[in-house]
Amino acid sequence: MNKLRINSFFNPIYVTRPLFPDISRIVEKLEDIWKSKWITNNGSQCKILEKRLVDILKTSYISLFNNGTSALMIACKALELSGEVITTPFTFSATPHSLTWNHVEPVFCDIDPVTMNIDTSKIESMITTRTTGILAVHAFGIPCDVLAIQKIADQYGLKVIYDAAHAFGVEVGGIGIGNYGDMTMMSFHATKLFHTAEGGALICNNRDMKEYIDILKNFGMKNEENIGMFPGINGKMNEVQAALGLSMLDLIEGEIRKRKKIVDFYRSRLRDIEGIYFQEDMQGVRYNSACFIIRIDEEKFGKSRNYVYDQYKKYNVFTRKYYSPLCSEYPHYKDLPSSHPKNLPVATKIVKQVLSLPLYGDLSIHDIEKICDILIEIRNS
Ligand code: T4K
Predict the structure, then answer these.
(1) pLDDT digits over 191-219, tens only?
(2) Structural domains of the chain, count
(3) Both 323 and 232 in a single domain?
(4) CB 183, CB 198: distance < 8 Å
(5) What is the pLDDT, as a whole number, of residue 2?
(6) Quick one: 212 and 271 in the same domain?
(7) Contact status, residue 374 vs residue 366, Cβ threshold 8 Å
């Protein structure tokens, strides 16, 4: 057995840690909720959060949800997707499952080798008479080629939904990422940059649609008199979730700055290591440094991604293989015609290489230095 020269971390280092505002900030808001005796069903905390997010995300219409998955399910319903929808296999399970819950077949399209998002040059060849939309993912907060996707959608009359689970605060050309496509989902899960413990939002581009979404997430009822207008679900965010979100909104810019510093440090330490690759920033994009993903080329690095992942654990470092396996490899989807690996050569290769390294504002540069040193020790072991 190889002996570790670098001491393992005393406390576990996880891939991420949720942002926790000072407890006094949330207590103040909880006191407001207690006084009002209003704890869910579009209370004042939710209303304030919605308004603040409209400004912060530079968009017009936002509906809050109890989680990102229910928001995505409602997006598919509200846009009346049916038949087939073209999507990426390199994502979290919630993306294709939201289609399946709407009786829509996900058609998996290969990904771009640089951005790891849906490869727009391959979308057109997958469109059939049954195709009604494109469900693209800004994986890890890296924007898709939104202009190319819109061009295809316009040409073929398709709806576009973005799964922007990780893309809070990302902008393309100065425009909030939620303004692209017909609808954008954001996740406010604890593992995300901005969170409400569990939570999410749907961004759309007109008032009528927002009203419809708000009805769909409230069982399909508009008010006491107008019930059962549509087959809705319960997708409502509650007041405690919204209060938590409000109490940390002011911390987000600082958190992004800290994370950016960490990402820059990772890049400077890992750039010259043979067989380790990562994405550089694209011009015109405002990033949120949600995640730091490396790709490990086993041949050049000398060790496989799985080996590195396992070895890191011995140092008390818990990296993640996001998003492995591909959704097209899940038992539920593997027999779809589009799932065959020969149709997905880039995704099939990349999914064996990716590793999400620890990234959150509270990590010190000293910790990051050690995480990088460990990677080198693993290579030399
Ligand atoms: N689309 C995409 C592209 C997504 O990535 C996601 C969610 C969705 C849609 C759906 O959105 P939501 O319905 O979730 O709003 C996590 C999250 O549960 C999931 O939200 C997220 N993507 C996915 C990428 O990651 P797990 O099972 O890998 O998380 P877990 O519990 O292992 O946590 C990861 C690490 O975070 C832990 O090792 C330690 C740390 N952690 C986690 C939690 C929950 C904490 O320190 N404290 C905590 O409270 O799925």
Answers:
(1) 999 999 999 999 999 999 999 999 999 99
(2) 2
(3) no
(4) no
(5) 57
(6) no
(7) no
Among 19, 70, 92, name the best residue to mutate to test ligand 1's pocket (greatest count of ligand atoms within 8 A of Cβ). Answer: 92
> Do 328 and 245 lie in a common domain?
no
Of the residues 208, 226, 250, the one at which a domain ends: 250
Edge-first strand order for the sheet with 159-163 is 61-65, 200-204, 183-187, 159-163, 131-137, 84-87, 105-108
* Same structural domain, 222 and 330: no
> Partners of 292 in the beta sheet?
357
Q: What is the pLDDT of residue 4?
A: 73
- Does residue 163 line the site of ligand 1, with CB under 6 A? yes
Mean pLDDT of 336-364: 98
Top-confidence residue, 56 or 4 = 56
Ligand 1 centroid from CA 123, angstroms = 29
312 lines ligand 1 (CB under 6 A): no
> If you average pLDDT over every residue of the chain, what do you get?
97
Our answer on whether the CB atom of 184 is closer than 6 Å to any ligand 1 atom is no
Please indicate, yes or no, whether residues 69 and 99 belong to a single structural domain of this protein: yes
Q: Does residue 195 lie in a domain region? A: yes
Instruction: Find the domain containing 104 and state its range.
Output: 23-250
